Amino acid sequence: MTEPAEAVAAVPAAQPPPGAQPAYPIESVGNALRLLLLLRSRDELRISECAREIGVARSTAHRLLTMLEHYEFLARNPSGRGYRSGPALIGLGMAAVGLLGIRDRARPHLEALRDELDETVSLVLLEGPTARFVDAAESERPLRVAGLVGLELPAHRTSAGVAVIAAMDDAQRAERIAGRSGLEQSVAAAREQGYALVHNESDIEIAAVGVAVPGALAGLAVAAPAGRATAEAVTRWAAAANAAARRIAIG
User: Is the pLDDT of residue 1 over 50?
Assistant: First the structure.
């Protein structure tokens, strides 16, 4: 069946990545990969937007999105409208983290910081508006915060996420906090103190201190039951975490 031409003519097609074209290009594969690349700059994909961006009919965009969903590179949003990163794509991203080395590089420092403070320490990466917990060294105390590897939360709800935003340059930071007065206050406090303190980060009665890893969209979070987060303890956790973050950055 012939697809409607108007769906491809109104808006110029998104350009493929620069560089020499392959000798035997496969258009459908190229279009599917271009759809995935759109996730670098947005939280979700909609059929109409995808059709415009890559210059195809809506029916073609829908088939591409459905195939990517089938192989778990995309997943439907809970609302049923639009698609977001799926388990397969997230898994590739996690593998890339390992290849880049930050998780392996950070691991001994997580364990050393856990041993020093006797609290759970996590490595957190910022991915767009999301903070992802990619590794953790869990405290062995009977009452402790569990390691949350794989958990995703809005970056502004996590101590490490706020700390990383606070460490961004002025333009990036302003973009992140635009329209969020509460976040603006938290970021300002983190910039002044050198760490972010968040209560109830992922559950009730939990306190977490977050610091940024210099030169990376990554941070460390020290989490403990809120009752142990005295002013003295928070100061000690922040100093130790900042020292560990600097060691991770140096490599």
Answer: no
